[in-house]
Amino acid sequence: MISAYIDRLEGDLAVLLLGDEMKKVNFPVCFLPADVGEGDYLKLDISYDKEATEQAEQEALDLLKE
């Protein structure tokens, strides 16, 4: 789980400060919960989607065979 602080909103982007090191990243506002704003904290959970990756690899291989 990654802690993120919403530093500010700039149009369609939110400037998030991630983790203890407060690494700055731009993130689309449309993916944020509707009830959050500047000064709020978020919890981000990023996980690997093995099934989607394998499906995309298979689709690419199928295209190469055609």
TrEMBL record:
Pfam families for this protein: DUF3006 (PF11213)
Superkingdom classification of source: Bacteria
InterPro entries per UniProt: DUF3006 (IPR021377)
Protein name from the UniProt record: DUF3006 domain-containing protein
Species: Selenomonas ruminis
Lineage: Bacteria, Bacillati, Bacillota, Negativicutes, Selenomonadales
